[in-house]
Batch of 2 targets.
Target 1
Amino acid sequence: MSSAALTRIHHVGVVVRDLEQAYGFWRDVLGLPVHKVATVADQGVRAALLTIGGSEIELLEPLSPSSGIGKFLAKRGEGLHHICYATEDVAAALEEARAKGVRLIDEKPRPGLAGTICFLHPASTHGVLVEYAQPFPDEAHS
Ligand code: CO
């Protein structure tokens, strides 16, 4: 298995209007613990990661209506936003996707909430926004 291989679903991203309100279902009804909350200013979101086995649910609340997530919320409402796959080498995985002709959103990996990440364009993925993440070393199993 090359280090570019995708190893598991790291998280599923869900857009919500308000994190605290969303906890009422995702944390309190489903019983998933919130293990990390962070503001990612350059993506215009406040995000929470909830643990489910070896994977996570990533709740995304827009910081403003003009952010990417804010526009998604206005246009599509709350709901599924992306699927993120873990890899041990996000740069290699991105190069492999590029070499296979996949249209990219990120030309190179960048820091994100789940580690070093990149996004593939839904035009090449049958309509699903796909993220790759190489978890930070101290969070390899989170
Ligand atoms: Co994500």
Target 2
Amino acid sequence: MAINILDEETINKIAAGEVVDRPSSIVKELVENAIDAGASAITVEIKDGGISMIRITDNGKGIEKEDIRKAFYRHATSKIQSEKDLMNIGTLGFRGEALSSICAVAQVELITKTEGSLTGIRYEINGGKEEAFEEIGAPDGTTFVVRNVFYNVPARQKFLKSPTSEGGAISTLMEHLALSRPDISFRFISGSSPKLQTTGNGKLKDVIYTIYGREIAANLIEVDDTEGNISVKGFIGKPVIARSTRAMEQYYINDRFIKNNMIQKAIEEAYDNYLMLHKYPFTVFGIYIDQELLDVNVHPAKMEVRFSDAQQVYESVKTILLRALAGKQIINRVELPEAKEAPRQELPASDSAFGKNFDLIWPSTNNRAVEIFEDGNKKEPVMHEQAEDARLPEPFEQVRNEEATLKKQMFFEEEKKKYEQTELITPELLHEENLTKINVIGQIFKTYWILEYGDSVYMMDQHAAHEKILFEQFMEEFDNANVSRQTINPPIIVSLTEEQIGILNEHMDSFEEMGFEIDEFGGNEYAIRSIPSNFSSADKKELFLETLDSYVSGSTRSLQSSVRGRIATMACKAAVKGNTYISKEEAERLIKDLMKLKNPYNCPHGRPTIIEMTKYEFDRKFKRII
Ligand code: ADP
Ligand code: MG
């Protein structure tokens, strides 16, 4: 179709808004044009995060000589002709606004040649003003060079981020584009370093491997299924590769990368029984639906779509994902069998004197103990996060889940009051001189420790207590700029996405301050050479990735965005979990360490570490006192 200028009526129907707000949106528009032009190979090169230069070369069908100038007019497109075409869009572009918007705010050079013409044309247009139009020898296809983005719009320049983060956004975009079209060979070069190269062999799994590395590619479940008039094709991650942000929930509608709440909900609900709280799956799949049931004309940057029946899309996607997850491949998810727990029983008997055997029981100083703690770590949903969400103590929560009869209502109101009272425990419990007077009775529910002291019984949450100890110890080291690190030999190698690499490089100093030593290992791989030694009982790789992810999601959660929040995350990762057997000595060590803290009574998330019930309350319950 030749390029035509849309009529007023059609223009008015097009979702209006900003097309170009940063270099990545220019890359998005130009690569989409290359895809629409039928290219099988697309190369993107950028300098300074795309701010000083973006070059995009494709081997698509090119632009006819007489269409070139027109292509840069507003509302000029070869992809639709009239309003009725808006209902049935088969191309990524259709608004005819990208080229006009880009040439208005940058210096643009275009070289293009169609198959049928003998020579190519070189066209130059700066800030919307034509500078050159000449014949030139060129291969079939199109090259756009965009220089000095916003050179003539100083107000806009101010909003550009650092070249690293603009470049990072382009990297992520290129990954999404490459994943959306495994049949196209993409090449992405930033500065002089090649960042991404896909073969275009049509195999999505190969693209996933190229971008995310071995570990992710080895833990995928293939989906190729239809439900109603919706098909889903692609890969979803086994629970072992779940992440702590939604960034890896990736999906495409008819090859278009978008964000959609209903699909997000379908994904997360399908994974509900497979993932811990606050863990999000890895997915890359395409949803295919009749174009007529889909409105792509709802968002200026085409990042959203509207379905004629969103509920049905949600249900179909969820059903398909549930079917895939219920398949046999998932079985190795349960990798925390009883057998692994057995060694716990072999720990030294619990008759040791308080304070002895610390070397045996403390994770950072003893390998065997580390193993035990690590097993525990893998096991359990993070309990405090549940409580944090609910903002209620667990006993209260349990009761809430039962029938809400008036009687129970009254009961738990009372419980709640009691809880609030008991939160303030007799402070002298945690004075060191009283150490020998504490009688450690034992563990209940594999989570809480019962202690007797004076006229009270105390219940200590082993996870909250350990978490708080790690947190305060580390905060102190951190505040004194005296963080001790533990060398990991051999180093642990992790594959990072371009976005993660950008964030890591941007925050390398603060990673170092926290005790991480990370360096490049070639390609997208990085070597973790040391971690903060306080947290050496954590799964080291997860500790690092979790910390890195907390920078990605930083802006969304105020607690997480601060150093404190990050340290709390690390402490939580490294602390022994609930529902885990620990020995009496370990519990005694926890009590002893709690005593050294400034505020031993609450975990970093505000939950109590210890609660108290007095003898008086026992007596009352048993009606000894009325
Ligand atoms: P749209 O993509 O919405 O049609 P654009 O402003 O992005 O609008 O592009 C205008 C027109 O320029 C397109 O419709 C297409 O005909 C032509 N065009 C742009 N880029 C290319 C390309 N890489 N190869 C061939 N044609 C292109
Ligand atoms: Mg376009």
